[in-house]
Amino acid sequence: MLKKIVVIGPESTGKSTLCAQLARHYKTQWVPEYARAYLLKHGTNYTLEDLYTIAEGQLKGEEDIINKMQQLQSTDLSPTPVFIDTDFIVIRVWSEFVFNNCDNRILNKIASRHYDLYLLCNTDLPWVKDELREYPDLGTREKLYHYYKETMTNQQVPWAEVRGTNDDRLQHAIEACEKILHK
Q1: What are phi and psi for residue 43, nearest 5 degrees?
Q2: How many CB atoms within 10 Å of residue 70?
Q3: Gap between the Cα atoms of 50 and 98, Å rounded
Q4: What is the pTM of this model?
Q5: To 10 degrees, the CA torsion angle through 78, 83, 86, 87?
Q6: Measured between alpha carbons, how far is 150 from 76 in angstroms, rounded to an integer?
Q7: 138 CB-near residues (< 8 Å, 6+ apart)
Q8: Widest CA span of the chain, in angstroms?
Q9: φ, ψ dihedrals at 42, nearest 5°
Q10: pLDDT band at 43 (very low <50, low <70, confident <90, very high)
Q11: Which residues, at least 6 apart from 121, have a Cβ–Cβ distance to it below 8 Å?
Q12: Cα angle for residues 128, 130, 133 (degrees, 5° grid)
């Protein structure tokens, strides 16, 4: 039985690092953020429609990994986590923040997808510059973080905040995952 655990939060909050660490810890797979590959290929001058294309690519990557894991899964019924670096909620927040609008197809996917846990990354790590990141100022990142936190408090899926150093984040995330995996 697969447990889908999504890692969300503003840019440069350690989402990809945390997914990779958790996958190593649990000896499982993780789904990378599709937006990075898309923007590296197509550039950072994106449109609202591009965000829907990114959302579709993210979903395809998620479904590919989940199908692969389901095929490899043994008859052991113990829960196996799969970690997902961003989902439609991230695309929604991104879309609303940049374009003050969100494609209804994204909103419909949010309503129809099922996840077992969200891990919300805090902005307390230093921002790291790369060619895709747009918001170096802490004020903007904190504003985005609060959008995510409000979204988490207004939905039914369990969630936990991860904060501190990368090691602290990993420990907080493992504690939250254990509650889901062993209930």
Answers
A1: 95, 170
A2: 12
A3: 12
A4: 0.95
A5: -30
A6: 37
A7: 123, 127
A8: 49
A9: -105, -10
A10: very high
A11: 7, 8, 9, 10, 13, 14, 15, 18, 162, 163, 169
A12: 85
